[in-house]
Amino acid sequence: MNRDENILWYDFGQETKTATIYPLSDVHLGAQGAMSQAFARLVQEIASEPDSYVTLQGDLIDNGTRNSVTNIFKATMPPSQQKREMAKLLEPIRDKILCILPGNHERRSGRDADDDPAYDIAAKLDLEDRYRESIAFLRVGLGKRTAGAGKNMKPHVYFIACVHGAGGGALPGAGINRADRYLQALDGVDVLIHGHTHKPYALRGSKLVLDPANKIVKQRPTLAMCAGQWLDYVGYPVDKMVAPVAQAGANKLQLSGTRYRFEAVI
Question: For the chain, what is the radius of gyration of the CA atoms?
Answer without folding.
Answer: 19
